[in-house]
Amino acid sequence: MDTDQIRMTFVDFYRERGHQPLPGSTLVPPPGDPVLFTTSGMHPLTPYLEGRPHPQGPRLVNVQRCLRTTDLEEVGDSRHLTVFEMMGSWSLDDYSGPQSVRWGHELLCERFGLDPALLHVTVFGGDGLVGPDTESWRVWEELGVPVEPTREDNWWSSGATGPCGPDTEVFVWTGNGPPRGTPTTDDRWVEVWNHVLMRYRRRGDGQLESLERPSVDTGMGLERLAMVLQGRESVYETDLLEPWVSTVQGLWPVGSSLRLVCDHLRSAVVVVGDGVRPSSSGRGYVLRRLLRRVLTRLWRQDRSHTLSDLPETLIEVTLQHFGQPVEGQQVDARVVRRLLMDEQDRFDRLLRRGRSVVSRYRSRGELTERDLFELHDTHGLPRDLVLGVLSESEAEHESGREQLPGQDHRQGLGPA
User: Fold this and answer.
1) Dihedrals phi, psi of 117, to nearest 5 degrees
2) What is the DSSP letter of 234?
3) How far is residue 189's CA from residue 148's CA, in Å, rounded to a whole number?
4) What is the rounded distance in angstroms from the CA atom of residue 120 to the CA atom of residue 111?
């Protein structure tokens, strides 16, 4: 299946079981929401998971685009993306966890065609405050799927406070030969789905209270499932990411940074498509950071590389995939490309100005903690930018060689 077929199969399966489809929302939460971006499919549904009746009923399904900065350092491996899509189903005080588990097994094995022998699950084994999730455990064993109990790994929460509960996670074996070990002992088990039993609310004092209307919340990563179903070794080899990989490979010799460059540029396009613009704080800073991580890698070996090389057709395909522009916003490939170029020019000016500033400090010796503080507080040059880019650039300049941005060992991307 290609990714469009996977999305359709998931939504249709739950529609046949009485779930009402919800449109995916933008990455930008509504005013008053304290988070920068939508991080999971359940995030827009938090009030309903806490007990408010949903206007479309107790059974829901959707595909939601998400962005997580917590995984930023893992981007570039085979499984993590900054912007990804989460396929989700919800039972709002309707059917129970065991029913969700049975339907999940049916969807994976009968609709998606996964070999049941390649499945393994983890369940919440209890932690002294809450007992083990014996209901899910029993159903998985009845279905013939091996079970591994854990504690922290199978407790889901949306933050320090709010709805939470035990979960059961579904893994698929991707190694050669028969499955070995368990999900916690062999990373060739790839997590594809999570069924959360929203039974509790964590209060500000850390105590748990039972929800009057418990729910079931499931989330399955579209790109990871596509990787498994399409027999690929990474999400970057799926039909969804491959156009970015092949295009970037033909534009710039980025070597081992290929996946990161593809991910960050694609994510930046989606963020811009949802109305975010680069700035020195908040959502705009996340966007700026993504672009500067890309530029430091493009310029490591060739200062002439430019984001203007990126074809508008690739940007347009990405905007269309995510249903952008959203209503009321005039965003097309040309607008996005122009914004990327403007931010590139801004970063270039910062590097040129920053090099001379850092040079003055370096003339007195190695940079101290006080120097780094002053560079940030007085000159707007954050620590990571100085250590990761400008010091190396200055060393190249002193040796008489052509200026290069240098290696970005600490992912230096300041807010300036």
Assistant:
1) -70, -10
2) S
3) 12
4) 18
Name the CATH topology of 3-232.
BirA Bifunctional Protein; domain 2 (3.30.930)
Write out the two tokens for 111. 């609709």
**Alpha carbon separation from 197 to 137, 158, 163, 166 (Å, rounded):** 13, 13, 10, 6
pLDDT at 97: 96
- 88/107 Cα distance (integer angstroms): 13
Closest CA to 191 of 104, 121, 132: 121
Domain definitions of the chain by residue range: 3-232, 241-398
The arithmetic mean of pLDDT across residues 88-101, rounded, is: 97
CA angle 130, 132, 135 (to 5 degrees): 120
CA distance 30 to 5: 30
DSSP element (H, E) containing 292 = helix 282-298
Round to whole Å and give the CA distance between 82 and 241: 13
Q: Are strands 119-124 and 147-150 parallel, antiparallel or unpaired?
A: parallel
Closest CA to 70 of 82, 78, 62: 82
C-alpha–C-alpha distance, residues 346 and 344, integer Å: 5
- 264 and 257 Cβ atoms separated by less than 8 Å: no
For residue 75, the 8-state DSSP code is T
Cα separation of the two ends of the chain: 44
DSSP helix/strand/coil, 178? coil
Reported as half-sphere exposure (CB side, CA atoms, 13 A), residue 329 has a value of: 18
What single-letter amino acid sits at 54? H
**Measured between alpha carbons, how far is 232 from 185 in angstroms, rounded to an integer?**
22
Beta bridge partners of 168: 195
202 pLDDT higher than 70: yes
Q: Is the pTM of this model over 0.85?
A: yes
| Average pLDDT of the chain, as a whole number | 88
* Pair 61, 86: CB distance under 8 Å: no
User: How far is residue 240's CA from residue 291's CA, in Å, rounded to a whole number?
Assistant: 21
**Assigned token pair, 172:** 């698929």
Non-local (6+) Cβ contacts of 58 within 8 A are 91, 92, 93, 94
Mean pLDDT over 318-336 rounds to 79
Contact 260/297 with Cβ under 8 angstroms? Answer: yes
Q: Decide if pLDDT at 201 tops 60.
A: yes
Q: What is the DSSP letter of 18?
A: T
pLDDT at 325: 65
